[in-house]
Amino acid sequence: KAKLQGRNMSLEYAPEMTEAARLRDNLEAELRAALLQDQMHMLYQPIVNAATGKLESLEALIRWHHPKLGLVSPDKFIPIAEESGLILGLGQWIFETVARDCHLLRQTLGPGVRCSINVSRVQLVDSNFSHYVSRNLLSRFPKDQQLTFEITESALIRDSERAADSINALCSQQLAFAIDDFGVGYSSLSSLREFKVSNLKIDKSFISHCTHNASDRTLLNAMIEMAHSLGMTTTAEGIETEEQRALLQELGCDLLQGYLFSRPVTIEEIAAQGWFYPVKQLKVATL
Ligand code: C2E
Ligand code: MG
Ligand code: MG
Ligand code: MG
């Protein structure tokens, strides 16, 4: 009986599946063309020091302007690029674009602002990755440019041994690693010891309700304390309100990022703002 049901199920869902598969195939083909046709762009979102409001780092975030579909979210096309292996070529394009932008930015801002780049697990566990990064990539950046690779927590769980090898081989004075979207990926906390990671980026789902949800506050507090006791710094992403900013500052979070400070913008816009990004005047948290 179970078998029969299974068969009915698959029949019932077949048209939808092929539709989804067709869409996926199309996107994959168009993704291949997108780089050549100049449809990809990088935007940068400021990450600021929670205590001073100083611009510490810029996270590079890719954008795809599809000629017919308009803006396609990276949450939609990065998984397709990962499954098809296109992420390796796309990843190189991202690295090279960020390196070029970095030189541009220095002409106006000078040194001192870190660059954060999202790296997919497919890239991280690719057998050529450490070689590519150390031999080709780092030399494209200014010598004293500090870089952070952001790897999602879920990426570290799959293939965790290879991921750890790759991270531990690459991390250096110039290159640090951050765990992105921390707290939703169900990694065992003890596994954090295996990775030479210097920053925990707490997932924005913990931030959105933290000012009126006591258990989110408790979790935030625990994550920040745990990171600190392991010698890591913390970043809160998705800060949208002054109340959230003040709370995270009070909890001792080191770095903050979110629409309150700035949406992701072009490198030209960042350069035009100067060294001190016009963050809201920070009140010292009272409690
Ligand atoms: P992520 O690395 O966790 O990036 C944070 C996402 O949150 C970004 O979405 C950013 O625009 C958004 N965000 C920033 N501040 C706020 C806020 O205050 N409120 C809300 N609601 N959202 C905020 P985006 O740019 O759509 O990127 C989505 C995801 O796609 C990224 O998550 C990352 O996993 C992936 N991605 C983006 N660019 C790249 C890339 O160059 N390479 C790779 N491998 N993945 C990328
Ligand atoms: Mg990120
Ligand atoms: Mg994130
Ligand atoms: Mg994310």
Overall description:
By secondary structure, the protein is an alpha/beta fold. It has helices at residues 2-36, 74-84, 87-109, 121-124, 129-137, 153-157, 160-170, 214-229, 242-250, 267-273; strands at residues 40-49, 55-66, 70-72, 114-118, 147-152, 175-182, 199-202, 233-236, 255-256. Strands 1-2-4-5-6-7-8-9 form an 8-stranded mixed β-barrel. α9 links the parallel β8 (233-236) and β9. α3 runs parallel beside α10 (267-273). The chain is globular and about 50 Å long. The model is unreliable at 1-10 (pLDDT under 50). The protein binds ligand C2E and magnesium ion (3 copies). Residues 24-278 form the EAL domain.
Which descriptors would you attach to this protein?
single chain, 287 residues, alpha/beta, 8-stranded mixed β-barrel, 9 strands, binds ligand C2E, EAL domain-containing protein
